[in-house]
Amino acid sequence: MLISGLIVGMALGFVMQRGRFCVTGAFRDVWVTRNTRWLTAFLVVVAVQSVGVFALDAAGVITLASGPFPWLATIVGGFIFGFAIILAGGCATGTYYRAGEGLVGSWLALITYALFAAVMKTGPLSGFNTSMRSVTIEQSNFYSVLNVSPWVFVALLVAGVALAVRHHLNKPRFKMAAPPASKTGLAHLLFEKPWNAFATAVVIGLIAIAAWPLSWATGREAGLGITTPSSNAVNYLVTGDPELVDWGVLLVAGILLGSYIAAKGSGEFRIRVPDAATVVKSLSGGALMGIGAALAGGCTIGNAMVETAQFSFQGWTALVFMILGAGLGARLTIMNRRPSSGSGPAKVPARAAAHS
């Protein structure tokens, strides 16, 4: 059953690469261009997964559990992580799939992200991480505090996201000129035709739902997750302990493989070596990502996508502070480059504008 982790990861990496599903871009665009289209697409993933995860819980396929809310570590870690993804040019999952496209900068960010996640979780800084995450409050999710059914929150989330999607679909969009199709049928759809942001989000949400029972079947009682599997992969390379190679480790390996297949099939794979400044940003951004994700208890997947779908305080608090951290990162690295005069819109640097 462990092989299902690799399959789910390949599907996730393929879809995110072809859909150009960039969480960093979603958070950054809120501040730089005041555009919420990709943030809305991200919330579509959360809403779709929320329906599925509570249905699985109600059916007894999985059992959702809650624990104390480590509020201090979540706030600090979420903010650090949000800032870091702007430096690194991608969040945890984005870094994995951009690495599969051949971006050397993403390879570097991925290495330091996984390394520092391990340092925080099981290495020299594990005591600090544990101490920070021991500052808690008992309440862990919204519906238990209000003593209502979680389906009330599911309905509100789905309705709110549906209205936001409708708003974006009703806005006029510019059609970009595209070269004539060179593929036909399924190959054209999978590797050539641009994917709609909201359709991509629905598919990712369905993959996230499927991850729950498949992961549980192997004894890993969780859904999608990137930080702990990345830490486990580093620890496996150091210790050789085969127990560390679980469903999650195969998941992240699958993301790399799936994104490579997608990039190769669409002609988007090529080795791209960054300049020195980008190398420094990638390494430092990756390190801060590992630190922030470990403190917060998850990255944009484990916290902002999976925990939010369960309406946990940790997930939604992390999401808010990740967006705030990304805002600071964007202001320091992107928005300060705006021209001091003139009424024209600011241009986002090419590297920052590219979905990662």
Automatic annotation (TrEMBL):
Entry annotated with the keyword Membrane: yes
Keyword Lipid metabolism among UniProt keywords: no
Parts of the chain that traverse the membrane: 6-27, 39-65, 71-92, 104-122, 142-165, 195-214, 244-263, 283-305, 311-330
Top-level taxonomic group: Bacteria
GO CC term, one of those recorded: plasma membrane
Keyword field: Cell inner membrane, Cell membrane, Membrane, Transmembrane, Transmembrane helix, Transport
Annotated compartments: Cell inner membrane
Pfam families (alphabetical): Sulf_transp
Membrane topology summary: Multi-pass membrane protein
Similarity comment: Belongs to the TsuA/YedE (TC 9.B.102) family.
Protein name: YeeE/YedE family protein
